[in-house]
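This week, think about what follows.
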Amino acid sequence: MLFLSQGIFFGLYGALLPGPFQAFLLSQILRNGWKRTLRLALIPLFSDVPVIFLFLLILSQVPGWFINLLQISGGSFLIYLAWDAYQSSKHTTTILDDKKGSDGSLFKGAAINLLNPNVYIFWGTVGVPTILKGWAVSPFSGLAFVFGMLGTMIPVTMLLIFVFSKMGQFKPNLRKNLSRFIAFLLLCVGLYLITNGILTVVSA
């Protein structure tokens, strides 16, 4: 349940916190309507999954202590994301106002994700090391993280596409509180990963 819960949390983070992918979705809603944009919620299957397999091939060949060091680095990255989320909560206007974009193709959306360095940093330092640690417990635990994340992010993104089409954007207070809540959760998970990684290295 721990790995599934972590996957669900990161799925919510990936769907809810504003970023380049969400800006792209909003531009497509404004251009093509929510019904034609709905399928773009599947973009992580075309962008994140190849990155997962890439890092699985690389990190499955390295010693266990290296995975623990990556986990500590990943925890530090999450603390940075927590700070970034907190900083974004101070602004009352949403960044999801980019009206640029030529079409609603899956290819373009996947390219936006693949060109986002945070995708590689996350899966390289947090996502795949967590999958490998879960797999060491049982294959189900490793897969639970992936299914928890993608199984949460895609439906929530679909819901947000519909919400954005009706509201245009979140109300300022709702977005502010949501960003602060996500920042708090990111901080907690980041500290957990750092502590767990340090304890594992020390006890090895």
User: Anything to note?
Assistant: The chain has a mean pLDDT of 79. The chain has one domain: 2-203. The two ends are 25 Å apart (CA to CA). Residues 2-203 form one domain.
